[in-house]
Write a structure and sequence with these properties.
The chain is mainly β. It has strands at residues 2-7, 10-12, 18-26, 33-39, 46-52, 57-59, 67-72, 77-82, 91-98, 102-104, 108-112. It contains no helices and 11 strands.
Length: 114
């Protein structure tokens, strides 16, 4: 089994930055992709960014050029650097790992407001 623990998040003003971090533990050898999803109130959960074990990355169109996903295989971490944040980025952000099954973190709130 894989477990995920997230950190980061909080309240920032538009244009500011935040960094989210996710650490995986357990059967990490089975993970072939990790990523970040988000869910805003009244909306469906959506992919923000993901990175495969082979290093392939994809981003949601809405965050391209502003967010950067990175990973450290040795530490089993995946980070999401979020720059130029907008109010529409406000959501609960979830770390995700695709392994023998799909695993989710507990979620961390990101609020962008002036």
């Amino acid at each position: 089994q894989v477990q995920l623990v997230e950190s980061g998040g909080g309240l920032v003003q538009p244009g500011e930055s935040l960094r989210l971090s996710c650490t995986a533990s357990g059967s990490t050898f089975s993970i072939y992709r990790m990523g970040w999803y988000r869910q805003a109130p009244g909306k469906q959960r959506e992919l923000v960014a993901a990175i495969t074990r082979g290093g392939n990355i994809n981003y949601a169109d809405s965050v391209k050029g502003r967010f950067t996903i990175s990973r450290n295989l040795a530490k089993n971490t995946v980070d999401l650097q979020m720059n130029s944040l907008k109010p529409e980025d406000t959501a609960v952000y979830y770390c995700n790992a695709d392994a023998l099954n799909t695993v989710w973190g507990q979620g961390t709130q990101v609020t962008v407001s002036s």
